[in-house]
């Protein structure tokens, strides 16, 4: 019944024109709609989720439009089609992380016999140009893909006006479009601190990956994976990096692992200032980079400290782009505090013909593959008669800090909370990658941990690995966990030698045994 | 794109100059749709159109090589360069998917085309065919 009243609202404009609201009450969502819309589906946001959904819908020969627009950063930076992941997220991040790893590999290589001058330098501009060139080819690739699938693309800002979305392009020209259904996939943007000098002098991840000058001595504010990954590769490229943390590292992640990540970074030259927050950023000198003075206050008392840096990178969180797209005009409810959109397990908002996917969803994971999967399955349900829902359980992730961290399933603290400490068994072990032996790298930092549910056949409910290629290692185990992997099955799996991942086939020491 | 374009211009060296040192440069950058209509579609001479992109490595090799071979044809063929990010509508109109894409145009029609890098001999043959046919 709830759905009927909303459909009435949606068609109310038409009803007034036709003067017959009673007729509409008899319709349900499946009978043919009497008026024609411009599009079957309008997708607002051309990122991971939006593009996947649009391309999928085109397969069912639906008329689809994608509206993608990037509001420039406070420093004026913008980018092309593809969303956060492609332009200012996963892709450039991983490439720059790789640049840093290659620097380390160069050092290791001497022990393997490679000979070259003592001092090896890094050129920020060369790296950034290569990364941006690759991103440019991806932007173009997405445009070609949309064109080939006959999806209409507009580089324009979409917002709802009554029940129709209104698109405004760069030149301020407004066009009105109608559609049978809408998909909101607008993603998020970095949050600012709200202190003097933040927008004028600080950069965010939106600016870092195309910065046209080397950032120099950098202060990274935040303890998110964005903060730690960026701090990690900047230090790996040879820069002086400090991380300012308000409280804990990697909130929401297994804290045992988070602390190990932090320790490793600290032991490898990254400075941490804990329990402080910046209260003011001032410019000492203009330049590329310039010199900035940061004043910070303790979270535990009245202590105030100051520091000088070339660049201040803010990575304190991201806010959903849901507040300025007219959702109130069409009645879509959002969480007023966080800006996130609550949806049911079919990614439907409270308005039946408006759906949402990706980072803007409340209580869901902010990951590209999740958005893509949700988008594809949603479209298959809408147009292909499918019933499969997106499975948000046991989604694997990887944090690309200098010592990479791969995880799937429960963190130790969540497992204890859900199942009770007496019902879980944690197996763990340090390991020393063979490639690290010759160059004498740390022999007690890489770490493997699995959490098993004793009450359920010692089912593996949590997988954690700290070490090189953590993402590659974790992917396969995520599939095994999805199949219900138990400790016994893991133990009966024969390892591949000599690789890091084989440690998981021989775990015997438990945390319980001390 | 602002930051990215600033970055590219900063890095662009003198090697990217579009003309040759000859008094009459044989290659020009298309400014807009109207410019394309006037100097390519309505051109009395045959035109090779080089669709390229800033982010495309092979384009940076093909571009100068093609310009050199065009210059050798002593003014019998003109070369137009189109940056597909700046002139996406033109690129879409001529169905460019990958770059570099080079079109041979005569009297406003596309009479020949290739995608990717070619060596000097292949380019010479391509140009001679356009001029001769």
From TrEMBL, chain A:
The family this protein is said to belong to: Belongs to the class-I pyridine nucleotide-disulfide oxidoreductase family.
One GO molecular-function entry: thioredoxin-disulfide reductase (NADPH) activity
Top EC group: oxidoreductase
Keyword Transferase set for record: no
Pfam families linked to this entry: Pyr_redox_2 (PF07992), Pyr_redox_dim (PF02852)
EC number: 1.11.1.2, 1.8.1.9
Segments forming domain FAD/NAD(P)-binding: 39-375
Coiled coil residues, start to end: none
Span of domain Pyridine nucleotide-disulphide oxidoreductase dimerisation: 395-506
Disulfide links within the chain: 85-90
Taxonomic source organism: Anser brachyrhynchus (Pink-footed goose)
GO biological process: cell redox homeostasis; cellular response to oxidative stress; glutathione metabolic process
Name under which the protein is recorded: Thioredoxin reductase 1, cytoplasmic
Catalytic activity as recorded in UniProt: [thioredoxin]-dithiol + NADP(+) = [thioredoxin]-disulfide + NADPH + H(+); H2O2 + NADPH + H(+) = NADP(+) + 2 H2O
Residues noted as binding NAD(+) in the record, renumbered to the chain: 222-229, 317
Residues annotated as the enzyme's active site: 497 (proton acceptor)
Organism domain of life: Eukaryota
TrEMBL record, chain B:
Domain Thioredoxin: 16-132
GO molecular function: protein-disulfide reductase activity
A Pfam family annotated for this UniProt entry: Thioredoxin
Any one GO cellular component localisation term in the record: nucleolus
Keyword line: Disulfide bond, Electron transport, Redox-active center, Transport
InterPro entries: Thioredoxin (IPR005746), Thioredoxin-like_sf (IPR036249), Thioredoxin_CS (IPR017937), Thioredoxin_domain (IPR013766)
CDD domains: TRX_family (cd02947)
BP term (GO), one: cell redox homeostasis
Domain of life: Eukaryota
Protein name as it appears in the record: Thioredoxin, mitochondrial
Organism: Anser brachyrhynchus
């Amino acid at each position: 019944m709830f759905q009927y009243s909303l459909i009435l609202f949606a068609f109310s404009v038409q009803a007034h024109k036709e003067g017959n609201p009673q007729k509409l009450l008899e319709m349900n969502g499946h009978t043919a709609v009497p008026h024609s819309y411009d599009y079957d589906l309008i997708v607002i946001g051309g990122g991971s989720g939006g593009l996947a959904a649009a391309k999928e819908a085109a397969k069912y020969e639906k008329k689809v439009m994608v509206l993608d627009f990037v509001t420039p950063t406070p420093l004026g930076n913008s980018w092309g089609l593809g969303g956060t992941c492609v332009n200012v997220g996963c892709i450039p991040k991983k490439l720059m992380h790789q640049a840093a790893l290659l620097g380390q590999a160069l050092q290791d290589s001497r022990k393997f016999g490679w000979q070259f001058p003592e001092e090896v330098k890094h050129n920020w501009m060369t790296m950034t140009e290569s990364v941006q060139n690759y991103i440019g080819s991806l932007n173009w690739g997405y445009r070609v893909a949309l064109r080939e699938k006959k999806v209409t693309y507009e580089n324009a800002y979409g917002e709802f006006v009554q029940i129709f979305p209104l698109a405004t392009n760069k030149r301020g020209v407004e066009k009105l479009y109608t559609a049978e259904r809408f998909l909101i996939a607008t993603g998020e943007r970095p949050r600012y601190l709200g202190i003097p000098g933040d927008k004028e002098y600080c950069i965010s991840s939106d600016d870092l990956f195309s910065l046209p000058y080397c950032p120099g001595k950098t202060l990274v504010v935040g303890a998110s994976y964005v903060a730690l990954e960026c701090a990690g590769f900047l230090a790996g490229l040879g820069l002086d990096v400090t991380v300012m943390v308000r409280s804990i590292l990697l909130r929401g992640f297994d804290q045992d692992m988070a602390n190990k990540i932090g320790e490793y970074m600290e032991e490898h030259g990254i400075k941490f200032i804990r329990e402080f927050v910046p209260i003011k950023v001032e410019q000492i000198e203009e330049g590329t980079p310039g010199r900035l003075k940061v004043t910070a206050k303790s979270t535990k008392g009245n202590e105030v400290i100051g520091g000088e840096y070339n660049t201040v990178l803010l990575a304190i969180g991201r806010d959903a782009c849901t507040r300025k797209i007219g959702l109130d005009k069409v009645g879509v409810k959002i969480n007023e505090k966080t800006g996130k959109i609550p949806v049911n397990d079919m990614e439907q908002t409270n308005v039946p013909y408006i759906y949402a996917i990706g980072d803007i969803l409340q209580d869901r994971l902010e990951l590209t593959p999740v958005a893509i999967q949700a988008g594809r399955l949603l479209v298959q349900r809408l147009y292909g008669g499918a019933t499969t829902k997106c499975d948000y359980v046991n989604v694997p992730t990887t944090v690309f800090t200098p010592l990479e961290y791969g995880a799937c399933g429960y963190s130790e603290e969540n497992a204890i909370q859900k199942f009770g400490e007496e019902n879980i068994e944690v197996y763990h072990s340090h390991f020393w990658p063979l490639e690290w032996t010759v160059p004498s790298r740390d022999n007690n930092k890489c770490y493997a941990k699995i959490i098993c549910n004793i009450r359920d056949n010692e089912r593996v409910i949590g997988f954690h690995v700290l070490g090189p290629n953590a993402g590659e290692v974790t992917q396969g185990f995520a599939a095994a966990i999805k199949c219900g992997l138990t400790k016994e099955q893991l133990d009966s799996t024969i390892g591949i030698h000599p690789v890091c991942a084989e440690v998981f086939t021989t775990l015997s020491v438990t945390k319980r045994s001390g | 794109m602002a930051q990215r374009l600033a970055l590219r211009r900063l890095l662009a060296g003198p090697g990217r100059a579009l003309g040759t040192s000859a008094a009459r440069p044989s290659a020009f950058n298309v400014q807009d749709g109207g410019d394309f209509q006037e100097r390519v579609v309505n051109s009395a001479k045959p035109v090779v159109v080089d669709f390229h992109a800033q982010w495309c490595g092979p384009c940076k090799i093909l571009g100068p090589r093609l310009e050199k071979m065009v210059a050798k044809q002593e003014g019998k063929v003109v070369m137009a360069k189109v940056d597909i990010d700046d002139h996406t509508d033109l690129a879409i109109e001529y169905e460019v998917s990958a770059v570099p894409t080079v079109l041979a145009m005569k009297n406003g029609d596309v009479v020949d085309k290739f995608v990717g890098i070619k060596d000097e001999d292949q380019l010479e043959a391509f140009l001679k065919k356009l001029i001769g046919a």
